[in-house]
Design goal:
This protein is α/β, with parallel strands linked by helices and 579 residues long. The chain folds into three domains: 161 residues, Thiamin diphosphate (ThDP)-binding fold, Pyr/PP domains (Rossmann fold, 3-Layer(aba) Sandwich); 150 residues, TPP-binding domain (Rossmann fold); 223 residues, Rossmann fold. The protein has 23 helices and 18 strands. It is globular.
Length: 579
């Protein structure tokens, strides 16, 4: 017997370096499952509890490894469930191959069971979106899907009718190329020309107060970023997905930017006279400089000038472009701007430690601060979306070879646990932690059973405030309305962990936070540490503007139910910072 379409697909995936597939089997995709079963010594199938998780895991696997992630689902509802995780991959530019089943080819359009037009459904999320119309297509489609996903850093989708999955090709068109893997692909490594580099250098060399803003595109260019920053005497500000690009304890690092950013970073943006952006499309333009001259490095020309009116756009790979730019730069001997911000940064970290002080009820900042002390220098931290993201962004310091990610652009809840599972599968020897809120965790909490099933020693830290905390504060501070519809029914997550076969720790005393975290991290087993925190601890921005203060006062006047406790918490914070 020859190879059928599913055999050809999986062999092609192997040739492109795919070693792990996340998903759930079903009658609409079982032909591919059989091909995976026959090759299980070379490619892993990770059974998840929800297809959305499978897509998140494929996205995270791609982010953390730099390789092609892959997820699989059956026809109809299975395919639909993938979409949120795939949009996460699309918006954060992670290469993912999504394989979905489809009903019988001769029954499509007849309202047959699970008959969903998945090609139309995936049109917006995918850079490559095709249905198998003939088993002879499989070789070409599989190669093109992998190539497009990697080349365009996005989602490639293949829809496979169930009756074609186990059919062998019956011949090729006279125009077809010979069958076989066509994985001769290498990433583009573009470097701008000398004229553009010279113009960029003129702007940066003439600056007295230069600043750099770096994002996910700078993750592989740490040495070059620091060399350029040192030459320019430039503070380095990081977008959230670029958090691990340089260590937080490096003297040139000012930390993050935006509502979850730092005060020295905001000052750097306010007072710089030149801005060098590297691998970032930081979306919150109100935090960017108002009058500085701009230079931007990005390997996608359509991103140049998207957020900031730069004078010079350097289209190219961040690492190679910074290497090419460096010889054109002159050392800036005036370090007054940098040293002033470094003094502010030192005080900022002292403030972050102060805000993590031990109190009852436990402050959420303490959960992140104590975790930070226990993390190894190569730990992988996966955050969710919510107030937990703020605590992780501010209180967890990147150092060594640490990695960090979250749903940066889509900002979807529920990604933290699947991300950590994918990280642990990709790097079994490294410490992998999910830092999440109780709202996001409960959305896909069944995946903790996945961690137990595959004996993945992840640690899930749940900042438990029994509230959709970020939404609560958005209602109060952004709109001036009392909180509404954000309370969560409490769940005993420690008992849940034990019911799944893992370890569970429940913490209500600030003195027990670090010991519980240490036990979980050292256990070598899937663990959950739920930390009951003060639900009225506000995620204060680095600076409070007049509108935010006014809206907060309006919310109190309208009858914010926890207004007294919130006001008291803010008052105590300010008093502690002054004393």
């Amino acid at each position: 017997m020859g190879r059928n379409a599913s055999d050809i697909l999986v062999d092609t995936m192997l040739s492109w370096g795919i070693d792990t597939v996340f998903g759930i089997p079903g009658d609409g995709i079982n032909g591919v499952m059989e091909a995976l079963r026959k090759r299980q010594d070379r490619i892993r199938f990770i059974q998840v509890r929800h297809e959305e998780s499978g897509a998140f895991m494929a996205c995270a696997y791609a982010k953390y490894t730099g390789r092609l992630g892959c997820c699989l689902a059956t026809s109809g509802p299975g395919a639909i469930h993938l979409l949120n995780g795939l949009y996460d991959a699309k918006t954060d530019q992670a290469p993912v191959l999504a394989i979905t089943g489809q009903t019988y080819s001769d029954l499509q359009g007849s309202m047959f069971q699970q008959d969903v037009d998945t090609v139309s459904l995936f049109k917006d999320v995918a850079v490559y979106d095709q249905e198998l119309l003939n088993p002879a297509q499989m070789d070409m489609l599989a190669n093109e899907a992998c190539r497009h996903a990697l080349n365009k850093r996005g989602v490639a989708h293949l829809s496979l009718p169930v009756d074609y999955q186990e059919k062998e090709p019956e011949g090729h068109s006279m125009h077809s190329r010979p069958e076989g893997p066509s994985n001769a692909w290498t990433p583009q490594r573009i470097v701008p020309g000398e004229a553009e580099l010279t113009r960029a250098a003129e702007i940066l060399n003439s600056a007295k107060r230069p600043a750099m803003l770096i994002g996910a595109g700078a993750l592989g260019a740490r040495e070059e970023v620091l060399q350029v920053a040192e030459m320019l005497g430039s503070p380095v500000v990081k977008a959230l997905l670029g958090k691990a690009s340089i260590p937080d304890d490096h003297p040139l690092s000012m930390g993050g930017l935006g509502l979850l950013g730092t005060y020295p970073s905001e000052l750097a943006m306010d007072h710089c006279d030149a801005l060098l952006m590297v691998g970032t499309s930081f979306p919150y333009m109100e935090f960017l400089p108002k009058k500085a001259r701009g230079v931007q490095i990005d390997d996608r020309a359509d991103r140049i000038g998207l957020r900031y009116p730069v004078e010079v756009g350097l289209v190219g790979d961040s690492k190679l472009t910074l290497q090419a730019l460096l010889p054109h730069l002159r050392r800036n001997e005036d370090r007054e701007f940098l040293t002033g911000l470094q003094e502010v940064a030192t005080k900022w970290w002292e403030l972050m430690e102060e805000r993590a002080r031990h109190e009852k009820p436990i402050r959420p900042q303490q959960a992140a601060w104590d975790l930070n002390d226990l993390l190894r220098d190569d730990a992988i931290i996966s955050a969710d979306s919510g107030t937990n993201t703020i605590w992780a962004a501010r209180q967890i310091k990147m150092r060594g070879e640490m990695m960090f990610s979250c749903s940066g652009t889509l900002a979807t809840m529920a990604c933290g646990l699947p991300y950590a599972i994918a990280a642990q599968i990709a790097f079994p020897e490294r410490q992998c932690v999910a830092f999440v809120g109780d709202g996001g965790f409960t959305m896909l909490m069944g995946e903790f059973a996945t961690a137990v099933k595959y004996n993945l020693p992840i640690t899930v830290v749940i900042v438990k405030n029994n509230s959709l905390g970020q939404i609560k504060w958005e209602q109060i501070v952004f709109l001036g309305n009392p909180e509404y519809g954000v309370d969560l029914h409490p769940i005993d997550f420690a008992k849940f962990a034990e019911a799944c076969g893992g370890l569970g720790f429940s913490v209500e005393d600030p003195e027990e936070v670090k010991p519980a975290l240490r036990k979980a991290l050292e256990s070598g087993r899937p663990s959950i540490v739920e930390i009951a925190v003060n639900p009225n601890e506000p995620p204060m921005p680095a600076r409070i503007n007049l509108d935010q203060a006014t809206h907060f006062a309006e919310a109190l006047a309208k009858g914010e139910p926890n207004g007294g406790q919130i006001a008291l918490t803010i008052f105590r914070d300010k008093m502690a910072e002054l004393l």
